[in-house]
Amino acid sequence: MANSKFEYVKLYESDDRLLPRTYIVIRVDGRGFHQFSKKYDFEKPNDLNALNCMNKAAEGVMRNVQDVFLAYGQSDEYSFVFLKDTNLFERRASKLMSTVVSTFTANYIYAWSQLFPNNPLDGNFLPTFDSRAVMYPDVQSLKDYFSWRQADCHINNLYNTTFWTLVQKGQLTPHDAQTKLIGTLSADKNEILFTDFGINYNNEPEMFKKGSILRWEKLDHKYPKNPTKRQLDKYRKSVRDAKINILHCDIIKDEQFWNDVLAEEDTAA
Ligand code: DGT
Ligand code: MG
Ligand code: MG
Ligand code: MG
Ligand code: MG
Question: How buried is 12 (Cβ within 10 angstroms: 0-12 exposed, 13-18 middle, 19+ buried)?
Fold first, then answer.
């Protein structure tokens, strides 16, 4: 239908290209996972299989959406960062968001079938995710973005760990546990866990306390400019073969982490 009289409708598409030379972050978040986690009986406050399912889904995004060089996940959310100079989909926000969120969802459902063989998904209650795209203009704001998400993980996890310990081990009703925690600071929660239940919060699993960071072991999968078929095949093979490391380090304080990540990004961009 090229050049048909109908073609003018294309002009109605808006130009939603994200700014050049900014770090594009796409964050996906589970829709209604409060209900979803109840429906499928997630362990409280952290279900190891459910978190691993998120990690698998994120790995699927890294492998299938080019130019994602770093990802961070906690709870029902995952953030993906693209190379500063990515030209994927001409940086169009709607294409980037919809590709990331559908790739994530497809991989989540596939990983679910592997990780929860005895807890199959109900066709009337399937996992879905929303997504948003945000641009960060420099390294400092990108670091602060990740620090924000990791601080969120820490605050929620300390609260939830204390809350569910009070309910499960302390026999408090959810209402009484909530009341007991009103106005408490981090130190108070650590103290309740330690004094009343002998739990040292520092010894809780790193993934629960800090979330998960995904990074290419070696970022040798740069997408070539105007690739020949041979270059494209080589590129695809290197992405298929590259290892993705999963870390649970402190991205707020760890300067070395950022030095390493950005050194990789520099060579790739
Ligand atoms: P939304 O995002 O506005 O559609 O609503 P929700 O319900 O997804 O709320 P959100 O994203 O703020 O909070 C995530 C919910 O998922 C929260 O209720 C806790 C739940 N969740 C996430 N991971 C786990 C887990 O490992 N175990 C349990 N029991 N719940 C989890
Ligand atoms: Mg939300
Ligand atoms: Mg959610
Ligand atoms: Mg969430
Ligand atoms: Mg098409």
Answer: exposed
